[in-house]
Amino acid sequence: MKKDSIHVVMVPWLAFGHLQPFFQLSIALSKEKVHVSFLSTPRNIKRLPKLPPNLEPLVNLVEFPLPSLDDKSLLPKDAEATLDIPADKVQYLTVAYDLLQQPIKHFITREKPDWIIVDFSPYWIAEIARDLDIPMLQFSMFTAATLLFFGQLDHEGQEEPKPLHELLLSPPPCGDFKSTVAYKKYEVAELFAAIAAENASGKSSMEREAIMGKASRAMALRTCAEFENEYLVSPRNYKKPLIPIGLLLPGELPVGENDLALPQWQKMSKWLDEQKPRSVVFVGFGSECRFTKNQVYEIANGLQLSELPFFWILQKPSWALNDVDALPSGFGAATEGRGFVHIGWAPQKEILAHPSIGGSLFHAGWGSAIETLRYGHVLVVLPFVFDQGLNARLLVEKGVAIEVKRNEEDGSFSGKDIAMSLREAMVLEEGEELRARARKAAAIFGDRKLQDSYVRNFVEYLKSNGNLR
Prior knowledge:
GO terms for molecular function: UDP-glucosyltransferase activity. About 40% of the residues lie in helices and about 15% in strands.
């Protein structure tokens, strides 16, 4: 017996690399007549895109004020997401987030949803779901390759587990094929500090992930078999069902409907219209990459040396006194006419959709990779944090990306190496096969009908495997 209508509660972590995919999944489910309660804090909900009017009755955006900490100096006022704070303050955001346990428990107790779809961080949801006998499912931001990689870190049942640092440098066992997905030496120390080290909340990211994985009935992944089926079917440590739910393609809203884009878009659009088709490199590293001055200047140097047209969206660095200080002296004059630099927010999806864009220099975040490959653009990857290094190796393994060469010990990179990677990807003869594979990938990443079919299959799973009420 299947239910015709179900109610799902979404509980994402307070980072926009998590909030946005959860919001996209909420919209995708609502299109299949699933009722969704999306739980977050007031400021984060206000920063999400507007819901399409026809879906507003099906998606309830539920605001929970973020509790303040006793020591007001630990977390800045109005800091409700990781992009609002430096990296060393994220542990205190986690402490405040954990204080939402009781308000969220009261909401779930009152609403009695059919499913709870949860992120890695709110480990206390596992107890709530168990006490209320509500099935829980984890939605992971990872690719199947990344999940398989992290699966080897589970020491349960291993007689002599390898040291964590050694495992982080080793690709996962994959049966009939050899994976290249692993961290590099310079990435390991920072990653270990981010996911395994103790923090003010008392629970590391690895501990939270382990609790959620064991308590969930299944793991939903933002991926599809057409791209990485070998990782979905490989032998793995993860004991629960893995459900690919498609790539969750963003909606087709014209930029003119987005109030944030209006003041800037005319100038950007005019410059892009003047460029040749597929000639421009889009450069964007999101809102949460914290660059040093040297890193920004080396990226600028690489763009100058490449002699390619580029469109660079740069978040103003904390060390920059003003917008002029954010770039090397003379950079603007040296690249005048062939480069466009915008400091601050810009409509990335609309820029990537422009026919003048042919490639992208970015951090290898999975959401940005999806947005870019949707249009068949070639990728030049320069990863920095969390799963970006693993994504970079997967994209290179799939033949749609070039990774910028870096120093194996400290991760430093040069403008010269960026320029070489950009020129190979965009114009040199040796990059032609790469460009062809990227254009071919658009047949998968841009196929809305295919990706929507994954969501429908996911809804059928929810209807068939939840508790009957």
